[in-house]
């Protein structure tokens, strides 16, 4: 095993450069002036120039897009994760007729390509008067997040020791109480995975946002696209500043959630 | 007053798997009843039905004055200690113990008092702020017991609570549970597959096999008067020896058990037992402690295969021309592997079993034991 170690470290180092360098370049470039970038694209910034961030934030409705993204993603992630957890728990623990068929039906949602739903959804939202509102995005985001989230969470709930929930029921919980007080906190690792997964998908989602919202009601990806088409098309440091601001929430969610993805969350619950 | 009555209780799982069949038990108030049997015998299922964690297919369960078949677990006034402890890993020991009381809206001050009292009783006061993962197996088991005690339930259920502990800890926890039962004076049902736990803890023991109660009696009654081969073989370490394919014959006015070269004279009660099984094979059961070693001319001739010195006694594995037998001998018995010895049998303590039904046919003919 030890002889493999240098090899494994080398692979890890190469991968971290491949994945990390573009991000690092983006952040470093956002602190360079346009002149500095033209002079030396790959060097470190000589000083931390904040003008690009000022330009971006004063440009168009960048702040508004940002807020829209936070609202839409926050609500969608919260509702989708909670609804998926409840559904997954029911599929994992309850016995009812047609359970597996219903689960397969839910999973079949994963096979529907997002793009074939764009026009029907546009027409539906239009007739409901919901176009250009956060709800136009929140609904589809939740619907598309549910199948895979339920799938991940069901597998996790099935791996949890049933005795702990039985103990909660004897302690005075109803089945829903056992879910809320015991199963859900124990599912933190899987929930964190689902939250990160959904947040990254929703934060970067472009097709729905472009189709169902416009102007000041749209979200950051479409906002950045709009900005990049305008005067910023040649302002590379300005664009990287916008992107840097854009990735910050994703990183925050990841760092908050990833600490829950630790092995041995259930350590101590059971003997042996 | 909280007796527990199981009346013809049956559990059938999907796929027609019969887990428990017509279980009839009356656990008296303040009694500790042990359900014992091998894995898959239905003992845990029976306990879970009492807890309300499994539905009853047929029959009724009564706790105190109430039939509880349709009452959810939380309203049955019971507490359960699980084999795997089932502590809430995200809560501290204090919160684990207080959880049930909090759900029942017990005032905060009283919760504190009751948790502290139970913690003092179990010697875990210094662990109250820890999470379960920071506890040893024995400590977790105490917390699990503490969580049950604070609720002050009418009935305690224990589902193999000592199985995950090491041998030494198991012995000390067993003694503590015994003390706890005397101190709390509550009705308890205890499930185990360990016959030593069953014998040492139970006021009465129900031996189960394949979903059926084989015998329900006091520990000594079970040991001395097993109703069938299963009970006789299940209780006792090493287990009872069964000398199979023998015949009872009359020789010189006495009844003798013949199997291979073995000729074992039986007491008078064998006469009636032999009458019950005319001309048929019988199985003679004899416990290892009722065998002793003598010279080859004296008793049933056997060859020593293995000698296990345990310090306080020896376990000796032997072979006759017909059977493999185990004998418990004094610690300093002079014996070695390949020795040929004569086995003396305390015939008063032997049992005769019908090989077809497994029933102990000698019980009815040897009189009742003195009342305890």
Structural commentary:
The complex is a heterodimer of chains A (272) and B (372). Chain A is mainly alpha-helical and 272 residues long. Chain A is built from 13 helices and no strands. Chain A has helices at residues 5-30, 34-39, 51-58, 62-93, 99-107, 118-128, 134-159, 162-171, 175-186, 188-204, 207-212, 220-229, 236-258. Residues 263-268 of chain A have low confidence and may be disordered. With 372 residues, chain B is of the alpha+beta class. Chain B has helices spanning 43-51, 93-103, 108-122, 137-150, 167-184, 195-201, 219-224, 229-234, 269-276; strands spanning 4-13, 17-27, 32-36, 58-63, 66-67, 78-81, 155-159, 187-192, 204-209, 212-217, 241-251, 254-259, 262-265, 282-286, 291-294, 300-309, 313-319, 324-330, 340-345, 351-353. In chain B, helix 2 runs parallel beside helix 4 (137-150) and helix 3 (108-122) crosses helix 4. Chain A binds chain B through residues 161, 163-164, 166-174, 177, 181-182, 185-186, 188, 264-272, and chain B through 48, 51-53, 72-74, 78-80, 82-90, 99-100, 103-104, 131-135, 137, 140-141, 147, 151, 164-165.
Whole-number total of structural domains of chain A: 1
Determine the number of helices of chain B (DSSP H or I, runs of at least 4 residues).
9
Rg of chain B (CA only): 25 Å
Largest sheet of chain B: 6 strands, mixed
Low-pLDDT residue spans of chain A: 263-268
Distance separating the two termini of chain A: 28 Å
CATH topology of chain A: MetI-like fold
- Helix and strand content put the structural class of chain A at mainly alpha
Measured as a percent range, the helix fraction of chain A is over 70%
Secondary structure: helix percent of chain B: 25-40%
Q: List the secondary-structure elements of chain B in sequence, H or E.
A: EEEHEEEHHHEHEHEEHHEEEHEEEEEEE
Which CATH architecture of chain A? Orthogonal Bundle
Strand content of chain A: under 5%
Average pLDDT level of chain B: 90
Q: Write out the strand line-up for the largest beta sheet of chain B, numbering strands in chain order.
A: 6-7-8-3-9-10
User: How many E strands of chain B?
Assistant: 20
Rounded average pLDDT of chain A: 87
Count of runs of 4 or more consecutive helical residues of chain A: 13
Q: Which chain pair shows the most residues in contact?
A: A-B, 27 and 35 residues
What would CATH call the homologous superfamily of chain A?
Answer: MetI-like
């Amino acid at each position: 095993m030890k002889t493999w170690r240098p090899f494994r470290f080398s692979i890890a180092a190469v991968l971290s450069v491949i994945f990390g360098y573009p991000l690092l370049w983006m952040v470093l470039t956002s602190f360079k002036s346009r002149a500095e970038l033209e002079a030396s694209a790959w060097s470190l910034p000589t000083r931390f120039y904040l003008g690009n961030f000022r330009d971006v934030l004063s440009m168009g409705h960048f702040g508004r897009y940002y807020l829209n993204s936070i609202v839409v993603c926050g609500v969608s992630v919260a509702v989708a994760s909670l609804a998926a957890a409840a559904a997954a728990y029911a599929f994992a623990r309850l016995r009812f007729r047609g359970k597996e068929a219903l689960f397969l039906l839910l999973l079949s949602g994963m096979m529907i390509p997002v793009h074939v739903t764009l026009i029907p959804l546009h027409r539906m939202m239009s007739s409901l008067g919901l176009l250009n509102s956060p709800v136009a995005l929140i609904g589809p985001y939740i619907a598309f997040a549910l199948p895979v989230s339920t799938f991940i969470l069901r597998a996790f709930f099935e791996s949890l020791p049933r005795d702990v929930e039985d103990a909660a029921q004897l302690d005075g919980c109803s089945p829903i109480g056992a879910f809320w007080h015991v199963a859900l906190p124990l599912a933190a690792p899987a929930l964190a995975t689902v939250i990160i997964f959904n947040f990254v998908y929703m934060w970067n989602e472009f097709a729905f946002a472009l189709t169902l919202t416009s102007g000041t009601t749209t979200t950051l990806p479409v906002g950045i696209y709009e900005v990049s088409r305008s005067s910023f098309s040649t302002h590379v440091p300005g664009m990287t500043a916008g992107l840097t601001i854009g990735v910050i929430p994703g990183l925050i969610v990841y760092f908050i959630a990833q600490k829950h993805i630790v092995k041995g969350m259930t350590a101590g619950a059971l003997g042996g | 007053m909280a007796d527990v009555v199981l009346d013809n209780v049956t559990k059938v799982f999907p796929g027609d798997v019969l887990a428990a069949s017509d279980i009839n038990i009356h656990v008296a108030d303040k009694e500790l009843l042990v359900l014992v049997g091998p894995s898959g015998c239905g003992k845990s299922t029976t306990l879970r039905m009492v807890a309300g964690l499994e539905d009853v297919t047929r029959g009724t369960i009564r706790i105190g004055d109430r039939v509880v078949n349709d009452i959810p677990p939380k309203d049955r006034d019971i507490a359960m200690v699980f084999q795997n402890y089932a502590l809430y890993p995200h809560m501290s020991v204090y919160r684990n113990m207080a959880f049930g009381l909090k759900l029942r809206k017990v005032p905060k001050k009283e919760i504190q008092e009751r948790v502290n009292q139970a913690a003092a009783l179990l010697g875990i006061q210094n662990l109250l702020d820890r999470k379960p993962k920071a506890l040893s197996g024995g400590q977790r088991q105490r917390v699990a017991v503490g969580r049950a005690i604070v609720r002050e339930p009418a009935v305690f259920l224990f589902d193999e609570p000592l199985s995950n502990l090491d041998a030494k800890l198991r012995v000390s926890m067993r003694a503590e549970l015994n003390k706890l039962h005397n101190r709390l004076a509550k009705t308890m049902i205890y499930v185990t597959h360990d016959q030593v736990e069953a014998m040492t803890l139970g006021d009465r023991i129900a031996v189960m096999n394949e979903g059926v109660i084989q015998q329900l009696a006091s520990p000594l009654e079970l040991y001395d008067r097993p109703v069938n081969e299963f009970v006789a073989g299940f209780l006792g370490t090493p287990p009872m020896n069964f000398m199979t394919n023998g015949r009872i014959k009359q020789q010189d006015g006495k009844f003798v058990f013949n199997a291979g070269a073995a000729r074992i004279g039986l007491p008078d009660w064998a006469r009636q037992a032999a009458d019950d099984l005319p001309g048929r094979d019988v199985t003679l059961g004899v416990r290892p402690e009722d065998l002793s070693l003598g010279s080859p001319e004296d008793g049933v001739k056997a060859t020593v295969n293995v000698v296990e010195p345990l310090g306080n006694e020896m376990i000796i594995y032997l072979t006759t021309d017909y059977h493999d037998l185990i004998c418990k001998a004094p610690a300093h018995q002079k014996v070695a592997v390949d020795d040929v010895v004569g086995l003396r049998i305390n015939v008063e303590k032997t049992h005769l079993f019908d090989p077809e039904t497994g029933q102990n046919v000698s019980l009815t003919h040897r009189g009742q034991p003195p009342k305890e």
